[in-house]
């Protein structure tokens, strides 16, 4: 069994109920704990398409976001590799990248400038409440604005499992540029 969990379980920001249940199941297991997904940048697609603007809080706070393709490849590898049984992998990208850096990568992928507009925490919270419960919005804002050293740390687990480094955000932006055109 492979559980897609969250880096937040390892840092204590999210409960471990699902991981505990998997470990207690008696089945062979592997747990994957990805950090933030590069694909979360799709939340900016409409504003980038319509006005070449990207608004986000904590513009200069970097986190090592992971490409969902890397998560999928790690999951496939651990499903077929018995050497991964009983292991927990922290999955991150190869380097911390801030929202301002993400905007620059998307601009490069498009070949056009994008304006980065800083958002306040309250503006971001208000927008998040449209699609997530208040406690999840608060926890997310805490991670984005005041990440722990563990949340900013780059893990080499993608390299350990796949034999190659995790893909940088810029690669994700290039492969997904059509969403921002």
From TrEMBL:
N-terminal signal peptide: none
Record-linked Gene3D superfamilies: NAD(P)-binding Rossmann-like Domain, UDP-galactose 4-epimerase, domain 1
Protein name, UniProt field: Oxidoreductase
